[in-house]
């Protein structure tokens, strides 16, 4: 393992310190926690927005804390969901009297820990609602199993629910717009190389020099297929086709797209992918309203990318365009 | 059977020894059908449990169980933290005020623990989760009249081994679908260690 760290056991604390040092005016860390909140939290009479999850996906989620997006982000150990007591601290810190909304990615660990935190907060008299993001079409959509994972589409939920809350919407209104985003967002990713959790010291899986994995998760979870690496055009088309097969995005729709790097993929390659994604959407008569290219939801130093499509109506367009002061998502 | 505060402390001390010893093994199991953190998560949680056990005074078994539950909930994370945490929390509530805990109350505690895991995780028997060990263990307690350590260990071990043949439909292993077959479920392996420790502690005291 080759990493710029001090000690594998304190990477999360060390990272959070650095993040706060970089944005001292806008964010702070709650003492003795792994919670990053807006420095002016709580905002009175505004619904508080909390997200979080395992670390290793930076800038998710602390990079999305800022006016117009999240009020707090809870960082777990690397690739391990944070515990309920930490989430509870975040909820308490951002409750401005209008309730708190949780954005949870669909992983058993995240769902269980956030649900427990919500129960504890409700016992303390705080109103809490949540949405579960499950945008990864690489997994079968099924209510009998764990179901689809939450990946980069989560950032659109942060942005749009955050803008809605900033406008002074009620907890129910924030929940309903977040659910609208979840219903209209789909993603899929692929990887060229694995990544190494610092405390584990070795990669969690292996890919041969000439191999890639289509549909892989942001923790290296099993994807759809492992095969010989192909061109950017073929990769882009495989990801987009699978997303379009889900039937949410059709001719005549306006969409926002996100071409997300998983940690070790140059922007050059992301742009090459984007070029093909655009071409395909054009052919299909789907109009690209807005494009985001960069690292939004990473998987440590994994090389690879994900493509996300979000179908937009007028409300979602307005909210997507409203200002955000989050360091990792400035509008 | 009379299960006292010292037995409960002893139980979790042995659990911690086993988890620390098998930290790598548990992580390796989780590497195959999960995200390689189960051993790390459990080792972090139970180390903290034991660190605090030696510094506190407990009136009754329920207090030890409550302490274990709260520590696991706040230190383990992942799916297993809330699940084991809920199990011991429900166990604690079921035996509150009963000291020492007799066989029937212990059985009741385990039943409640299993119910708690099922409710929290929305999983049932046969989905390749820790429930596949918890459930047969509770069955043995219910069908016997007193603690039978050999039978008990045998049932728990077999249940753990059996998770190999199951296809995961809950938890992270579910993403591996058919590929999850042929591998032991990590949470079932750590559940087995918890019960193996219990049998050793009760046996050693007989
Ligand atoms: N819904 C569920 N119900 C019961 N047990 C579960 C469930 N989901 C996962 N588990 C158990 O949790 C174990 C995984 O724990 P761990 O690796 O610590 O968490 P994570 O899966 O979040 O990384 C699995 O091996 C399984 O036994
Ligand atoms: Mg795991």
Automatic annotation (TrEMBL), chain A:
<keyword id="KW-0808">Transferase</keyword>
<keyword id="KW-0067">ATP-binding</keyword>
<dbReference type="InterPro" id="IPR004006">
    <property type="entry name" value="DhaK_dom"/>
</dbReference>
<dbReference type="GO" id="GO:0005829">
    <property type="term" value="C:cytosol"/>
</dbReference>
<dbReference type="GO" id="GO:0019563">
    <property type="term" value="P:glycerol catabolic process"/>
</dbReference>
<feature type="domain" description="DhaK">
    <location>
        <begin position="7"/>
        <end position="329"/>
    </location>
</feature>
<dbReference type="Pfam" id="PF02733">
    <property type="entry name" value="Dak1"/>
</dbReference>
<dbReference type="GO" id="GO:0004371">
    <property type="term" value="F:glycerone kinase activity"/>
</dbReference>
<dbReference type="InterPro" id="IPR012736">
    <property type="entry name" value="DhaK_1"/>
</dbReference>
<protein>
    <submittedName>
        <fullName>Dihydroxyacetone kinase subunit DhaK</fullName>
    </submittedName>
</protein>
<dbReference type="GO" id="GO:0005524">
    <property type="term" value="F:ATP binding"/>
</dbReference>
<dbReference type="InterPro" id="IPR050861">
    <property type="entry name" value="Dihydroxyacetone_Kinase"/>
</dbReference>
<keyword id="KW-0547">Nucleotide-binding</keyword>
<keyword id="KW-0418">Kinase</keyword>
TrEMBL record, chain B:
<feature type="domain" description="DhaL">
    <location>
        <begin position="6"/>
        <end position="200"/>
    </location>
</feature>
<dbReference type="InterPro" id="IPR012737">
    <property type="entry name" value="DhaK_L_YcgS"/>
</dbReference>
<dbReference type="InterPro" id="IPR050861">
    <property type="entry name" value="Dihydroxyacetone_Kinase"/>
</dbReference>
<dbReference type="InterPro" id="IPR036117">
    <property type="entry name" value="DhaL_dom_sf"/>
</dbReference>
<dbReference type="Pfam" id="PF02734">
    <property type="entry name" value="Dak2"/>
</dbReference>
<dbReference type="GO" id="GO:0047324">
    <property type="term" value="F:phosphoenolpyruvate-glycerone phosphotransferase activity"/>
</dbReference>
<keyword id="KW-0319">Glycerol metabolism</keyword>
<comment type="function">
    <text>ADP-binding subunit of the dihydroxyacetone kinase, which is responsible for the phosphoenolpyruvate (PEP)-dependent phosphorylation of dihydroxyacetone. DhaL-ADP is converted to DhaL-ATP via a phosphoryl group transfer from DhaM and transmits it to dihydroxyacetone binds to DhaK.</text>
</comment>
<dbReference type="GO" id="GO:0019563">
    <property type="term" value="P:glycerol catabolic process"/>
</dbReference>
<dbReference type="GO" id="GO:0004371">
    <property type="term" value="F:glycerone kinase activity"/>
</dbReference>
<keyword id="KW-0418">Kinase</keyword>
<protein>
    <recommendedName>
        <fullName>phosphoenolpyruvate--glycerone phosphotransferase</fullName>
        <ecNumber>2.7.1.121</ecNumber>
    </recommendedName>
</protein>
<keyword id="KW-0808">Transferase</keyword>
<comment type="subunit">
    <text>Homodimer. The dihydroxyacetone kinase complex is composed of a homodimer of DhaM, a homodimer of DhaK and the subunit DhaL.</text>
</comment>
<dbReference type="InterPro" id="IPR004007">
    <property type="entry name" value="DhaL_dom"/>
</dbReference>
<comment type="pathway">
    <text>Polyol metabolism; glycerol degradation.</text>
</comment>
<dbReference type="GO" id="GO:0005829">
    <property type="term" value="C:cytosol"/>
</dbReference>
């Amino acid at each position: 393992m080759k990493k710029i760290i001090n000690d594998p056991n304190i990477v999360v604390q060390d990272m959070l310190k650095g993040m706060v040092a970089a944005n001292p005016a806008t964010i702070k860390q709650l003492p003795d926690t792994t919670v990053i909140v807006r420095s002016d939290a709580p905002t009175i009479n505004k619904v508080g927005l909390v997200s979080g999850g395992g670390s290793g996906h930076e800038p998710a989620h602390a990079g999305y804390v800022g006016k117009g997006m999240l009020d707090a982000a809870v960082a777990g150990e690397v690739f391990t969901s944070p515990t309920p007591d930490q989430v509870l601290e975040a909820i308490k810190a951002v409750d401005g009297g209008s309730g708190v909304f949780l954005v949870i990615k669909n992983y058993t660990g995240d769902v269980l820990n956030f649900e427990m935190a919500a129960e504890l907060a409700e016992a303390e008299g705080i109103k809490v609602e949540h949405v579960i993001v499950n945008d990864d079409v690489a997994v079968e959509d099924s209510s009998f199993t764990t179901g689809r994972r939450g990946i980069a589409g989560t950032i659109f939920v942060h942005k749009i629910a955050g803008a809605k809350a900033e406008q002074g919407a009620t907890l129910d209104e924030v929940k309903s717009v977040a659910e609208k985003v979840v219903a209209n967002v789909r993603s899929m990713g692929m990887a060229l190389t694995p990544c190494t959790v610092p405390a584990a010291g070795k990669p969690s899986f292996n890919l041969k020099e000439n191999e890639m994995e289509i549909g892989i998760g942001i923790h290296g979870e099993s994807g759809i297929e492992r095969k010989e690496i192909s061109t950017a055009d073929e990769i882009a088309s495989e990801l987009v086709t699978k997303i379009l097969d889900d039937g949410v995005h059709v001719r005549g729709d306006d969409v926002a797209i996100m071409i997300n790097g998983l940690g070790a993929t140059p922007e050059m390659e992301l742009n090459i992918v984007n070029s093909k994604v655009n071409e395909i959407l054009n052919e299909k008569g789907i109009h690209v309203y807005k494009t985001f290219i960069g690292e939004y939801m990473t998987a440590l130093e994994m090389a690879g990318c994900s493509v996300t499509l979000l179908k937009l109506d007028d409300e979602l367009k307005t909210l997507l365009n409203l200002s955000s002061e989050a360091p990792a998502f400035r509008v | 059977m009379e299960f006292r505060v010292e037995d409960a402390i002893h139980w979790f001390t042995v659990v911690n020894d086993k988890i620390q010893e098998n930290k790598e093994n548990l992580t390796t199991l989780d590497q195959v059908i999960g995200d390689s953190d189960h051993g790390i998560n459990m080792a972090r949680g139970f180390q903290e449990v034991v660190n605090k056990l030696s510094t506190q005074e407990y009136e009754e078994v329920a207090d030890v169980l409550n302490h274990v539950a709260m520590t696991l909930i706040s230190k383990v994370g992942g799916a297993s933290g809330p699940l084991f945490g809920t199990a011991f929390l429900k166990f604690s509530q079921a035996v509150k005020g009963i000291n020492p805990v007799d066989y029937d109350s212990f059985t009741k505690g385990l039943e409640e623990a299993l119910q708690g895991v099922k409710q929290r995780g929305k999983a049932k028997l046969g989905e390749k989760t820790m429930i596949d060990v918890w459930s047969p263990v509770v069955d043995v307690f219910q069908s016997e009249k007193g603690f039978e350590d050999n039978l008990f260990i045998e049932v728990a071990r077999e249940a753990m081994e059996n998770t190999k043949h199951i296809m995961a439909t809950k938890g992270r292993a579910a993403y591996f679908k058919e590929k999850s077959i042929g591998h032991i479920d990590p949470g079932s392996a750590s559940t087995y260690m918890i019960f193996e420790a219990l049998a050793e502690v009760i046996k050693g005291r007989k």
